Amino acid sequence: MWIVRLALRRTYTFVVMAFADCRDGGGQHLPHVTDIFPEINIRVVSIVWQFSGMPADEIEQRIICQTSGC
């Protein structure tokens, strides 16, 4: 109830505050351009290996199993 009494005593102050609030919040309805996908730095390792006599998928499984411990 105290804020109502204050608003009635200081009418111009609350009118100016209301206009300032409307002015500050007036642009809030406009869409803001934001990127929803942030820049992600992923480390990529490329290995080129030439080995005759073993198929590529078997070499792949050996490299994966040796590095991950499967």
Task: Please outline the major beta sheet.
Answer: none
End-to-end separation: 71 Å
Q: Would you tell me the structural class of the helices and strands?
A: mainly alpha
Radius of gyration: 33 Å
**Overall 3D form:** rod-shaped
Number of helices: 3
Helix percent reads: 40-55%
Binned strand content: under 5%
Arithmetic mean pLDDT: 78
Tell me the number of strands.
0
Poorly predicted ranges: none
H-E order: HHH
In short:
The protein is mostly helical. It has helices at 2-9, 11-25, 56-68. It is rod-shaped and about 95 Å long.
What keyword list fits this structure?
70 residues, mainly alpha
Model description:
- This protein is an all-alpha fold and 70 residues long.
- The protein has 3 helices and no strands.
- The longest helix has 15 residues, at 11-25.
- The model has no long low-confidence stretch (mean pLDDT 78).
